[in-house]
Amino acid sequence: MIHVVLPADLPFTGGVTRVEVDASNLKGLIVALEQRFPGLGDHLDRKMAFAVNGEIHQDAWFEALDDGSEVVVLPKIGGG
Fold it and tell me: Which structural domain range is residue 37 located in?
């Protein structure tokens, strides 16, 4: 299982901040979270980044996840 930490103010989750899902990569994690929280997948895809075991990834959908990995969902950092 992948341990997922979600922001408390993330839409569609009803304030849930911790869940566990089965996924082998970040794209699978998004799909699993969409199934649990309908509407969340697109929001994650467009506006959020992921820290996998402390390393931040943006748009790395096929980043491998190992059983027991921790994924922290956080806002993408914008800039110019």
Answer: 2-75
- The number of distinct structural domains making up the chain is 1
CATH of the domain at 31: 3.10.20.30
pTM, two decimals, is: 0.91
How do 48-52 and 70-75 pair as beta strands?
antiparallel
Render pLDDT for 14-53 as a digit per residue (tens, 0 to 9).
Answer: 999 999 999 999 999 999 999 999 999 999 999 999 999 9
d(C-alpha 13, C-alpha 6), whole Å: 9
Token digits for 44? 């994650």
